[in-house]
Amino acid sequence: MNNPPWPKGKKLVHLDLKGAPPRVGYLHKLIELFSQLGADGLLVEYEDMFPYEGELQLLQSKQHPAYSREEVLSMQEFAKSKGLEVIPLVQTFGHMEFVLKHGPLSSLRETAPCIGTLNPHREEGLQLLMEMLKQVVELHPGVKTLHIGADEVYLLGEGEESKLWLSTPERTVEQLFLSHVTKVAGAVKAAWPNISIIMWDDMLRGMCPDTLKASGLVGLVQPMLWDYTPNLDVDKTVSLLEKYCSAGLCDVWAASSFKGSTCVHTCVPNTQRHLDNNERWLQVAASVSAAVHLQGIALTGWQRYDHLSVLCELMHVALPSLAACLQTLILGQFSAEAQRNVTERLGIPSVEVEDIGRTSADDSLFPGRRLAELTVELNALLNSEDIRFFDNNMYVRGWFSPYHRQRKMVTSLISRQIHSQASTYLGPMQEKVEALKEEMVRLYPDSTAEEWIEEHVSPVMAPLQRITEDFTSCLNETQP
């Protein structure tokens, strides 16, 4: 379908830094590319990579050093020089795992088992949030817009203080949510009157217009409606935006996805899935009434689903998807022109990263191309059924089972064939893993390479390695 281009408003690229934060040099290359691809802003979710100070220093990552104050400032200056506005995102209700996981702050959880949701009743909780926001705002001189998160506030109302609050007749969990967000947004406005405030919309979706009108949020916040599905329901989404507007929340944002929304452990994005999602958002933008003021769209690129989940697709392997999605928004469809713009700009034959192939070209057009190639190649090996289910094939189960190996009851001829096949698979995999690690530590912290390999590679390689080790052990025992 041929849609109008994305209407006037920002096109933000989401930088999710809670997983695989790019090294500063690579971050600058990415920012330059984002600008060249047509983005005009960054939505930066620092989490534990922000250089919090004082009592908040414990929030900094222990896996790898947080960015320094100088690095945060230089990133903003570089982005500004490329025409990109920087919008920081600080979670203030749900998804506060990086804060509430720490022992000294655990008493501020809504419920002890749910480390992501803040107790909305404690004054010290609001003080904590305002100190976090103060440090972030002060390190973003001239910041115009702030995103306060507030999505997926799990188990709200389940804490003892919330149950007591809800025991008063006619009080609801919706009101509990709204009272906290209004309090936070009001405090932000009081401290920084000229800053616009964005929040995620999902906790508002089930609320009626009268509840939203009475909440105090009107004039305080701009909801950002997120939907990352390729089959986004256009009519339902338009109705939701119109509902927000009827409640007085007419300044709204959209959020699509270019990676990180397929499956929690996906390694390589499917560009077509994300193109479909962004094309649906174009249909939404073309269908809303003139009363709905779309401020822009954020193309989200999650590195993790949350602070404690595994790494999903990393930035380097998703650049073709991002480029294709941005061109689709700019031109109104993924046309031949859009495809040509992407392939020429990145120096690739196709927008699907699986098809980029091996090349001797440098990464001046496509920062991280070599790592993307290795990621695709290794991912294909790891997902090969012959390798992933090797210890379940007929010969291993029939003649080299754990029972056989434990008792050294193996058939030499067949076990040698099994060992030979396992070694044939292991060799190329180990070579690619070493090459990938060498390349990955150039762009990301060492800990990112270690985590990626341990999560995505080790579970597949371990059974093969055990078979080769057990073969050697059995061979030594059975030889005369």
Short recap of the structure:
This protein is an alpha/beta fold and 480 residues long. The protein has helices at residues 24-37, 69-81, 97-100, 123-138, 160-166, 173-191, 209-214, 234-246, 271-287, 315-331, 336-346, 369-382, 385-388, 394-399, 402-407, 412-443, 446-478; strands at 10-16, 41-45, 85-89, 109-111, 114-118, 145-147, 196-200, 222-226, 251-259, 293-301. Helices cover 48% and strands 12% of the residues.
List keywords for this structure.
alpha/beta; 48% helix; 10 strands; 480 residues
What does this structure look like?
This is beta-N-acetylhexosaminidase. Its EC number is 3.2.1.52. With 480 residues, the protein is α/β, with parallel strands linked by helices. The protein has 17 helices and ten strands. The chain has an eight-stranded parallel β-sheet. Helix 9 packs parallel to helix 10.
pLDDT < 50 runs, ≥5 residues: none
Q: Average the pLDDT over all residues and give the rounded result.
A: 92
- Helix-strand makeup class: alpha/beta
SS field, number of helical segments:
17
Largest beta-sheet characterization? 8 strands, parallel
The tally of strands reads: 10
**What is the general shape?**
globular
Query: Secondary-structure element order, as H and E?
Result: EHEHEHEEHEHHEHEHEHEHHHHHHHH
What are the SSEs and their pairings?
Elements: E1 10-16, H1 24-37, E2 41-45, H2 69-81, E3 85-89, H3 97-100, E4 109-111, E5 114-118, H4 123-138, E6 145-147, H5 160-166, H6 173-191, E7 196-200, H7 209-214, E8 222-226, H8 234-246, E9 251-259, H9 271-287, E10 293-301, H10 315-331, H11 336-346, H12 369-382, H13 385-388, H14 394-399, H15 402-407, H16 412-443, H17 446-478
Parallel strand pairs: 1-2, 1-10, 2-3, 6-7, 7-8, 8-9, 9-10
Antiparallel strand pairs: 4-5
Helix pairs in contact: 1-2, 4-6, 8-9, 9-10, 10-11, 12-16, 16-17
